[in-house]
Amino acid sequence: MTALLGICGSIRKASLNRALLAAIGETLPAGSTLTIWDSLDLPIFNSDLAEPARVTELKAAMNSADGVVFAVPEYNYSIPGGLKNALDWLSSPPRMSPLRGKPVALAGAATGISGTIRAQVHMRQMLVFSDTPVLNQPEVLIPRAQDRFDAEGRLHDESTRALLARFGEAFVAFVALHRR
């Protein structure tokens, strides 16, 4: 059994990236599950403050997961501020970060033609700090995502579904290689 945690970098309830996480969960290999973390609406990181309860809960969820899938939207050629803020909380203190050594995969959906290429590259760079192993292939950079999901957020594009199935298989195998 492989238990994965899905974290959506968008705080929008009708986010295409939230829909993408749901579709990834539906296409995982048998014996694998994906639990979606409901919100990254966290206070702005400040190391002078005590860790908020919501951050402690997120860290506990990440610690109990075998691997983490981040759905990464792209805003201004990078990741959204809420996701960056969550990474700041998750990486503090550095030696005790639940990201350290935790297998991670990145996926993203966007309405534009380039998917979330720049945001995912930037996120990979940030994950170096916490020594987080990140799945390299297959990349999930979904362009024109509004054409692949229906109004209720259900994936209807079969080529995307096939990509997500390959992605899920690869990530479950990657998690097994990095099991702590």
Please give the structural blueprint.
Layout: E1 2-8, H1 16-27, E2 32-37, H2 53-64, E3 67-71, H3 81-90, E4 104-109, H4 117-127, E5 140-142, H5 158-177
Parallel strand pairs: 1-2, 1-3, 3-4, 4-5
Summarize the structure in words.
The chain is α/β, with parallel strands linked by helices and 180 residues long. It has a single domain, classed as Rossmann fold (3-Layer(aba) Sandwich), CATH 3.40.50.360. The protein contains 5 helices and 5 strands. The protein has a 5-stranded parallel sheet with strand order 2-1-3-4-5, sandwiched between helices. Strand 4, helix 4 and strand 5 (140-142) form a beta-alpha-beta unit. Helix 1 (16-27) packs across helix 5 (158-177). The radius of gyration is 15 Å and the shape is globular.
Series of H and E elements: EHEHEHEHEH
Determine the structural class based on helices, strands and strand pairing. alpha/beta
Per CATH, what is the topology?
A: Rossmann fold
Number of helices: 5
As a percent range, the share of strand residues is 15-25%
Structural domain count: 1
Helix content: 25-40%
Radius of gyration: 15 Å
